[in-house]
Amino acid sequence: MNDFITLSDLPDFKQTLDLAMDFKKNPYKLSSLGKGKTLGLLFFNPSLRTRLSTQKAAQNLGLSTMVMNFSQESWALEFEDGTKMSGLRSEHVREAAAVVSQYCDMIAIRAFASLSDKVKDEAEVVLRSFAKYASVPIINMESSTAHPLQALADAITLNEFKTSHKPKIVLTWAPHPKALPHAVGNSFTRMVGNLDVDFIIAHPKGYALNPEITKGVKCLTNQDEALDGADFVYTKNWCSYEHYGQILRTDDKWMITSEKMELTNNGKFMHCLPVRRNIVATDSVLNSNNSLVINQSENRIYSAQAVLKQLL
Ligand code: CP
User: Fold this and answer.
1) The pTM is what?
2) 312 closest CA partner among 128, 154, 104
3) Which residue owns the Cα nearest ligand 1 atom 4?
4) Mean pLDDT over all residues of the chain?
């Protein structure tokens, strides 16, 4: 594996999942593997879990870390080639990526979608430019279209809490006041394709994810029908893909409540966090014993550790 930009970069999904589960049992078993090496973490957007869990994973492997809030602390980057840089952008990614490669043995990057230009977002300009001009591996800490470290952590959580051979998993859209990207929903859908599960996506009309990603997946616009008998309810908002970047509805009909969870098979509630309480899901759902949101966050350490180990 040269870079970890999507789940398909993993040499073997199942082996990676086993490795992550193994690290959870014994986090320090390779505590000298990264000795003398440095992981750089560049954030173009905010983070709590990704920032801390990836650093923790690096520490468990003996790696040093350097963290930079790139959008606030560094020079504004130019990504276009051949431009006359007379505006606000002071440094080209060609130099920036090459320079960071002198200090770091791996570079992890968070760069969200603009949600204003679908073509540019899908080209993953920030990650792909760093991958092109850096001389060290690039790791995706959530890009425009993918959040593979989250999806791998979610796979660990599903594995830990499943009670049947082939559980029913529902990925359901939920409301949110801001336009959010598709990265989590996309990567969760891709990840579930590696599991033996019964998978349904539920979303209101106008909120279908990228059809290339949901090809072959059962999608419903009736949330109650989708939740019927579910073992896991993975809840997430995303903006419209078809009407790119737009919020089409703000009512709370799709918010996850205890009454909706009663439709499930004593289902577990999942969300990648951060979550807006009483907008996406009610307090009663988030506070219930069936909520796995903190378990998911813990597993971010071991998903990152499994990826870093393979890149090392
Ligand atoms: N789930 C997740 O990626 O959380 P952060 O945005 O806080 O990193």
Assistant:
1) 0.98
2) 104
3) 49
4) 97
